[in-house]
Specification:
Two copies of one chain form a homodimer.
Chain A (H helix, E strand, L loop, with lengths): L10 H8 L6 H12 L3 E2 H11 L5 H13 L4 E3 L7 E3 L6 E6 L5 E5 L17 E12 L1 H8 L1
Parallel strand pairs in A: 4-6
Antiparallel strand pairs in A: 1-3, 2-3, 4-5
Chain B binds a DNA duplex through helix 2 and helix 4.
Chain lengths: 148, 148
DNA sequence: TGTCGAATCTTGACTCGTTCCAGATACGGG
DNA sequence: CCCGTATCTGGAACGAGTCAAGATTCGACA
């Protein structure tokens, strides 16, 4: 066991290097954890990272997640009523569905094409450079449970 | 000063009653504060409410905000990297622009019409009943400051 | 390959927003 | 006007996330 998690055992260091980040055990472990567990919260990521590097401090994980977010390797999402979560799918413009009942998160592609979301009807003079869409509802499981 | 805040000194109690809530001084004060200060955070609302009712405990304000949110009189919004904020514009489908620099929030109407946001390209079986859109960018002031 | 400076990690304390609890108080139906 | 219950007060507790100081490790360069 204790495989280097994701499917690119050697690719992670390279990704880090290309992003201009030093390659350290904590960073490889955290990046692998995010890629292996999309939409995971910080606690889960700390636990997952410790499977590879048992000694990582929570502080290091927070720091790494901050660095990865800053360099664009991961994205931080923060659904209301939940703690911060991270995902490794970046670059493609996609959004999320959040289940009201169990909090599960799933990816959805942009509703109206590629990036029309960036067009607000009246932008109040703001220079808009990004739009995030969060859908709320019930996941299939919870919907079934509620109907039953 | 110490006016009853909003423009409907007598309307607030009625709004509360119609929502099935008891009319108390803290509730009137908090509801008035939310209507007078759109997008304000909890601390500001506590301060604003205390202008009318100096003795309100922070706990009461939290409780009132919860009750108002539950009955649909106010909406709770929680921009990433910021604390909870509340607004009294409910019922109309509108979204928000958040300034990356100063955190200012402004309202924007739905980009593509009325409620097309509810249509995700692939909903993964979710029963979607709401969509929230958050635009990110710079407000006119911060944009000017950044360019200068 | 060995050395050195700077970035990164460890440990532990701390802040801040929010929630929980128990007892006192006020609203409003009868 | 009175009573039962929803609501409010005051204070303590909680958890996610941040700050700070010192030890460690990466990797550029000789």
């Amino acid at each position: 066991m204790t495989t280097t998690s994701a499917g690119h055992p050697e690719g992670l260091p390279q990704l880090l290097r290309e992003a201009g980040l030093r390659v350290t055990q904590p960073r490889v472990a955290v990046l692998g954890a995010v890629r292996a567990h999309p939409h995971a919260d910080t606690d889960s990521l700390i636990a997952a990272a410790r499977r590879d590097v048992p000694e990582v401090s929570h502080q290091a994980v927070y720091d790494v997640l901050g660095a990865l977010t800053r360099s664009g390797l991961v994205r931080r999402i923060q659904p209301p009523g939940s703690v911060a979560r991270y995902e490794a799918r970046v670059g493609d413009n996609h959004h999320h569905v959040v289940c009201r009942s169990c909090g599960t998160i799933a990816d959805v592609d942009c509703a109206v094409g590629h990036a029309p979301c960036l067009t607000a009807s009246d932008d109040h003079g703001f220079t808009i450079d990004e739009a995030e869409v969060v859908y709320r509802g019930l996941c299939p499981t919870c919907a079934a449970a509620a109907t039953a």
